Amino acid sequence: MSVLVFIEQREGRVRPVSREALGEATRIAAALGGPVIGVCAAAADPGLAAHTAAIEAAARAVQPGVLLFAASAMGKDLAPRVAARLGVGLASDCTAVETVGGALTATRPVYAGKARQQVRFPRTPALLSLRPKIFAATSKPGASATVEPLEVALPPAPRARVVRHAVAPGAKLDLTESEIIVSGGRGLKGPENFPIVEELAEALGATVGASRAVVDAGWRPHHDQVGQTGKTVSPKLYVAVGISGAIQHLAGMSSSRCIVAINKDPDAPIFKVADYGLVGDLFEVVPALTAEIRKLNVHA
Question: Of the chain's two ends, which shows fewer C-beta atoms within 10 Å, N or C?
C-alpha cells in the first residue's frame, strides 16, 4: 500500500513542512509495506485549483492507501478540496499517527486543544494533514528518486496569480517553521515595549510572536499572531511574555515541546500548560534573562 505526499515548494525549494511529511510517510510506508510517492505541481502558475487538479490526478493514478499533506497555510486549503474530489474524509492538523495491523489511527486536537480525538479511516485513501514541527523530517542524504511527469488537465487560469514571494527586510523564519519562539502579550502595556521581547528573541535566535489581543490592538502584524485564529506552532521552545493564556492562544501553542511562561499573575491560565513558570514583573525579569543569555553566549 503506497503513501502519496503533497510536496510543497517555494521559490523552487521544498519547504521544511513537506520534509516532515515525507519523514512520516517513510515510517508509515515501512509499516504498510509500500513505497512513498511525492506529487509536486510544476505549472507556470500553480494556483489552488491547479494544485488540487494535480493532486487528484496523482491520487487516481497511484491509488494510494494514504495521502499526506502538511497542515501549512497551503495544506489547510488543499487537503479538504482534494478530500471532497476523492469522496473521502480528512483528519486535519494531526499530531500523531499509528499503524497497527495495516490500519491507521490519527490523533488530533479538538475543542481548541481541550481534548484529543483519535480517528480511523473506513475508506482509502486515508487523508491526513500533519501539524508542522511535530514529525521528524526525512534525513537520507544522497537518496535518489525517479521523476515521472504526470499530464493534468488544468482548469482555466485564475484571474489573480502570485507573481513572487517577498520576505520583509530582517525577517526571520515563518513562525510555523521556527525552533524557538518568544511571544508577547497585553502585559507589555504598549507597542513601545515590544523591543523587550525582540531583544530576548535575538539573544535566543528566536522568532517573535504575539497574542491575538496584541494583534487586534495593532501592536504587531497579523502574521505574528499565534493562536486559533492565527498560526499553530510547535517549536522546541516557546516563551510566553505577558500572555495570560486565553484558550484561543493555548490552542495555537500548547503542542510546543517546552513552554516557559513569564507573568505577574500567579493564577494566569498560561501556567497550567507551562513546563516552567516565572511569576514576576516582565519589565524586570525579561531584561535580566536576556542579559544572562547573552553572557552564556547561547546563540553566537
Answer: C
Is the pLDDT at 14 greater than 60, yes or no? yes
- List where CATH 3.40.50.1220 sits in the chain: 175-296
- % pLDDT > 70, the chain: 91
Tell which CATH architecture fits domain 3-130: 3-Layer(aba) Sandwich (3.40)
> Helix 73-86 and helix 48-62: axis angle, to 10°?
50
Please state, in angstroms and rounded to a whole number, the distance separating the CA atoms of residues 155 and 229. Answer: 31
What pTM does this model have?
A: 0.81
Residue with cell 486536537: 109
The answer to whether 54 touches 44, Cβ cutoff 8 Å, is no
DSSP strands (E only) in the chain? 3-6, 9-10, 13-14, 36-39, 66-70, 90-94, 96-100, 103-110, 115-120, 126-130, 180-184, 207-210, 237-241, 258-263, 276-279
- pLDDT for 141-162, tens place per residue? 667 778 888 888 777 766 777 7
- The whole-chain average pLDDT of the chain stands at 89
The whole-angstrom separation of Cα 216 and Cα 202 is 24
User: In terms of CATH, what superfamily is 175-296?
Assistant: TPP-binding domain (3.40.50.1220)
Q: What digits encode the pLDDT tens for the residues 244-265?
A: 999 999 999 998 999 999 999 9
